[in-house]
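Please produce the structure of this protein holding flavin-adenine dinucleotide.
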Amino acid sequence: MATRNAQRKLLSICLRSKAQTKYQYNSSRNFSVTRSSLQSYSSPLPDSYYNEEQLQMQATIAKIIENDINPFVDEWETKEEFPAHQVFKKLGNAGLLGIDKSEEYGGLGLDFKYLAAVMEELGTIRCAGVPMAILVQMAMTCQALHRFGSDELKKEFLVPSISGDFVACVGVSEAGAGSDVANTQTRAVRKGDDLIINGQKMWITNSLQADWMCLLANTSDGNPYKNKSLICVPMNSKGITKQKIHKIGNNSSDTGIIFFEDVRVPAKNIIGEEGSGFFYQMLQFQEERMAGAVGVLKGIDAALSETIDYTRQRKAFGKSILDNQYVYFRLCELASENESLRALTYKAIDMFVDGQEVTRLASMAKLKAGRLAREVGDTCLQFWGGMGYTREAAISRFFRDARLLSIGGGADEIMLEIIAKLMNISPPPPPKKK
Amino acid sequence: MAMRALVGCKRVIDYAVKVRVKPDKTGVVIDGVKHSMNPFDEIAVEEAVRMKEKKLVSEIVAVSCGPAQCQETLRTAMAMGADKAIHVEIPAKEFELVQPIHIAKILAKLATDVKADVVILGKQAIDDDCNQTAQMTAAFLDWPQAVFAAKIEKDGDSLAVTREIDGGTETIKVNVPAVISADLRLNEPRYATLPNIMKAKKKPMEKKTAKDLGVDLTPRIQVISVEDPPVREAGQKVDDVDQLITKLKGLGRI
Ligand SMILES: Cc1cc2nc3c(=O)[nH]c(=O)nc-3n(C[C@H](O)[C@H](O)[C@H](O)COP(=O)(O)OP(=O)(O)OC[C@H]3O[C@@H](n4cnc5c(N)ncnc54)[C@H](O)[C@@H]3O)c2cc1C
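Below is the modeled complex.
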């Protein structure tokens, strides 16, 4: 064991010096100790669910996380920004950004379960902002472009997004159109061979550093479900201005308001059919919901683990906090909940890969994930006491970050509306206005 | 120079796992514990791949001895760049008492069978810390050895190997065929990229047993008891040297 300990020491020295110097990108790796295997709680399910290649992919992303992400998370959270181009390039080089995209454009042509394996491992990043940024790039910006875009558009935007040279963002939400996507106001009006875009997008992840946006805008008037298009917009186009939004969590992820003033892009930048934007956007929601659910599982495992460790060593009234039945029962209960969520999410992924309809299960998994992450963050923070209320404690970050899951990617109530429809218990729609 | 390299890949308990002794003290807990490739073997694989990239090596054969799960370790080696793999299956129970001398015999036989020009192994495995296999393999083959390598370069038809020694490094020239063991600073192994993980699936993996290779695995040791290292006793902080001396005197140490 002598070597094992020597290596740990060597490595902790490396990590410390690395974290102190300015963030520099290199291909080095060290033996590290921040791995999930040291955790007091880890799930037995992933090892039997994923196949050998999927587990190996998890090992690859785990190494990148250990060496090139986790040591810098605190710094990025404080700065409210992370170097997206550098991190994405690293991921792109390892082949992680095009798992489900076709080989023709630099992807791997694998099914969604391979993507899910990697997304689950992203949950070991010690904040939610960076994994969210990666998930947006991997699973939310390029799906429509990949499926419906022209070869020319794919070469221009998809290829560099898969290789990690481009940072991508998806611009759907607006100040007045969040849950209600149909109410989008941003307009793209045809002028000759071009589109002239006016309006604004709000809450856009990655937007401050992005090279391009997959923009949802109205390309005509009339039926709000048939007048929208998805458009590839280079973010250095004239007429685009940006404003940062400061949030209570997910601090390292840059969230922006993007203003469009007579922004001109070629009309051929429309993805697929003009007027199909709303439909295309809806198509990728299942994947987005499953991504949200699968992405939080390991974050919850870690929150439980760290709470077990903390409460075990913290003493009050002559015994460990953990030794109170209320405390350890609650932790067991939350672990059980997380395994149920995991099983549900895994099932939804399998059915989706199998080509079955998963709207109900995916919406349920997303709903449960948001709810459970809040419950875990709140309960665990409570068990940390005053320490949990400090910025230093990882649990306070989880508490703040996890809160987003019930809002973004379709709020809990939107999930409930969808589930209600599929259960045939939603009230009849209001009578149509004359 | 285009050599064939044989590289050892031992499957060990992952370096980040806290190793626990079994309650009956017959060994350490391995069931349900994360395993991965011995980090020094990763360095060995990486070096072979780099030598292949420099056209010093034409083919890399990865070998792992142990239970069926060693095939996962071999897939990792192939995802990093090894061309093919040989799994010498030794059932878990039997593997517990297998020692460097057994593995060295297996490796020597395989090196001869595959006509290897260079055998690259990790300098030691982080589970038993033996640091014997490379040396013994060289002895069985009667090849020169260059252990604790920190740098491997071509030198005419030979190799110049810089070795880590007490107080610094030394550079030696070895004729091939040779056995080399990799030290920590030889290189920093790459990640297996996703495309290479998928490609590794299609690379050939041969299965053999020790018996096929004519190696007798009869144990030469018997484990009497495995114990946790003693726990360090709590220390005390003192403000200055005077206080330290007073304390030590009080304890009767000086
Ligand atoms: C950090 C962050 C990152 C984001 N990233 C992106 C991005 O990259 N791209 C993008 O396009 N968008 C992004 N969003 C926007 C996100 O998708 C929206 O915030 C979300 O859809 C909710 O919309 P809203 O904020 O306008 O809330 P509103 O639509 O105003 O809803 C407010 C609340 O009202 C309730 N509510 C709404 N509708 C109903 C209903 N039918 N029944 C019952 N209750 C209801 C819900 O509780 C909801 O939370 C991001 C948001 C955040 C906070």
